[in-house]
Amino acid sequence: MGSSTFIKIKDLSLFDQNVVSFQFHLTTNIDHKGAALANNQCTTAMALLGRLTRKLLKGVASTIEVLDIHIGKPLVPTKLVPGPDSSDMPHTVLKVGRLFANETWILDTAGCQYGFREVLVPFEKYLADKSCQILNEPTTYDATETKDLDYFSTLPFLNRTRAQREDKKLEQQARLHFAVFVDTHVNKDILDGSAAEFEDKLDSFVHELKSHMLDLGD
Questions:
Q1: Which parts of 18-160 fold into alpha helices (H)?
Q2: Which helix (H) or strand (E) holds 178?
Q3: Rounded CA gap, 153 and 81, in Å?
Q4: Residue 19's pLDDT band (boundaries 50, 70, 90)?
Q5: Beta-strand (E) ranges in 46-150?
Q6: Cα separation of 79 and 77, whole Å?
Q7: Are 134 and 67 in contact (CB under 8 A)?
Q8: φ and ψ at 146, to 5 degrees?
Q9: Closest-CA residue to 64 (of 176, 169, 140, 131)
Q10: Longest dimension (CA), the chain
């Protein structure tokens, strides 16, 4: 596919029940698949993962902040077709500081849209390797599952039609359903144990989450 991956995205929503599965015949490259599915999803990821992140880090002396950056060296450049040029769009990540340990990390849950596979990277290394420009001062990470949707609901041009309002209502229901899963199925001990034990826990987590989200339509 050359140096760029060109993607057709039509109002994709992470939990939109009307979106069909990824068209795997288009490419066998896992990095291109990830870039297509995660394109422009960093704000959604920040909202969705607030409860989960805080639950997993509870009891750990740390700070969690939201940081907007510009990625200077994406491994997999993407383009929305049709759509405006998004190469200058800010990318949102989490800046995690370990108190009393003098450690700072970047937690990038949507970096695969640029071809990045590592989710947790030392702060200075992340900025240097990706030629990042910090766009603003970090802010406290207080996101809820629907923080972005709550903001979108105040914008008239995103709520003009019944279809737009129904789409947001369905996504809000799905995100709150996800929040229930975090409250009832996620324990901090998922991070404990050996690497092999973590893989088993992760497989179980994914299976249970899929089953839980499918229950939404019942």
A1: 30-38, 42-48, 50-56, 123-129, 147-152
A2: helix 162-185
A3: 25
A4: very low
A5: 62-70, 78-80, 91-98, 103-107, 120-122, 133-134, 139-140
A6: 7
A7: yes
A8: -115, 20
A9: 140
A10: 52
Q: What length does the chain have?
A: 218
176-213 residue pLDDT tens: 999 999 999 998 888 889 999 999 999 999 999 999 99
* Through-space distance between the first and last CA atoms of the chain, rounded to whole angstroms: 40
**pLDDT tens sequence across 39-55:** 888 999 999 999 999 99
More confident residue, 1 or 60: 60
Cβ(101)–Cβ(79) below 8 Å? no
Question: CB of 48 within 8 A of CB of 175?
Answer: yes
CB-based contact 103:62 (threshold 8 Å): no
Q: Are the C-beta atoms of 44 and 85 separated by less than 8 Å? A: no
Please report, as a single letter, which amino acid is at residue 207. H
> For residue 129, what are its two tokens?
């390797």
Using DSSP bridges, classify how beta strands 139-140 and 133-134 pair: parallel, antiparallel or unpaired: unpaired
Dihedral angle sign, alpha carbons of residues 49, 87, 133, 121: positive
CB 132 within 8 A of CB 126: yes
